[in-house]
């Protein structure tokens, strides 16, 4: 009876193991990229929500202008936000749509996260 493995068996076993390890490394790399992308999208969502909450505090019965051009986000390199406003019911102007857009860039390109809501003028 012989003991041990032949050179051919060892080569096949190493090849199968190498393919399995390569597949795991590929999945791990993809998961890492997805995690980074999700973290950036979450950050954009938090920025938009924070800006929107600040705008909501300004609406106390009247409609001040809240439009802002593209502005860098303090403490968040690579992130900018913009506030767009529009009246949805001319000529009454009691319903204002406010949109916050957060712009950011990552390895896959430029992205825009958009959050919008309506504000109603309660003074009329």
**How much helix is in the residues?**
40-55%
Q: How would you describe the shape?
A: rod-shaped
Note poorly predicted spans: none
- What CATH calls the topology is Pantoate--beta-alanine Ligase, Chain: A,domain 2
- End-to-end separation in angstroms reads 99 Å
Task: Please provide a written account of the structure.
The mean pLDDT is 89. This protein has 124 residues and is an alpha+beta fold. The protein has one helix at 7-58, and strands spanning 68-72, 79-87, 95-106, 109-120. The protein has one domain: Pantoate--beta-alanine Ligase, Chain: A,domain 2. The protein has a four-stranded antiparallel sheet, with helices on one face.
Describe the secondary structure blueprint for this structure.
Layout: H1 7-58, E1 68-72, E2 79-87, E3 95-106, E4 109-120
Antiparallel strand pairs: 1-2, 2-3, 3-4
List keywords for this structure.
124 residues; alpha+beta; Pantoate--beta-alanine Ligase, Chain: A,domain 2; 1 helix; 42% helix; 31% strand
Quick synopsis:
It is built from one helix and four strands; from the N terminus they run H-E-E-E-E.
């Amino acid at each position: 009876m012989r003991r041990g493995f032949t050179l051919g068996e060892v080569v096949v076993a190493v090849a199968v193991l190498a393919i399995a390890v390569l597949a795991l490394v590929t999945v791990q790399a993809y998961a890492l990229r997805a995690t980074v992308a999700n973290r950036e999208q979450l950050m954009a969502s938090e920025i938009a929500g924070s800006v929107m909450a600040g705008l909501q505090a300004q609406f106390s019965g009247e409609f001040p202008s809240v439009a802002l051009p593209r502005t860098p986000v303090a403490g968040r390199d690579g992130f900018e936000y913009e506030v767009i406003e529009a009246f949805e019911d001319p000529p009454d102007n009691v319903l204002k749509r406010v949109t916050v857009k957060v712009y950011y860039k990552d390895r896959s390109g430029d992205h825009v996260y958009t959050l919008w809501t309506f504000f109603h003028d309660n003074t009329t």
